[in-house]
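Working notes for the structural subgroup meeting. M.R. asked for a predicted model of this chain before we commit to crystallization trials. I am recording the input and output together here so anyone reviewing the notebook later can reproduce the run.

Input as submitted:
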Amino acid sequence: QNKVVYTGFRNISRVLKVKYPEGKVLATYGEMYKGGGGETGNGMYCRQHCSRLSDKGYVYLFNNNMCPGSSTLPSLVMIEEPTDMKGAPKKVWEYECTIEGNTDRQQKQYQFPIGGNVTELPDHSLFACMGGTYSKVFIVTDNKQEVWSALPEKWEEKQGKWVNNYSYRGSLVNSKADVARLVWGYK
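Returned structure, recorded in token form:
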């Protein structure tokens, strides 16, 4: 509608706002690197995935939160863009992803260096997949209530037990047409 594309670059923790179809960069959000320095993040996200624009006009994304020294879990982040070219973006909402049924020590075994995604649903709640070694999928409301979650598993024949099924991203099938395409390949 606004002829703008938001695109994220995980490896440099940057999000670009690009005029479409012209390709002109309108804004860039994230840490600006200086020669010889290490990656530190920008206080809002680090190694993010899935940058998108919400119905309410916020940029939202899946924050892998993987800068060196970071010890927190990934999160979902919403950012308000500045109203002028000299302003800075502002984090207006964040939901820290959770790992259920594990001690703090067990939680530290999980890493989230890659994957993960988030999609806004028609009711403005968010569907997300944590990706990586703990690929939980869940739905969270804008008031940070997790209303549904699942942990994909697969049967490991050699071990004789159910184990986590690692995923890069998760997708939501939310209509009969989506089911028909998925199951029967209809277009």
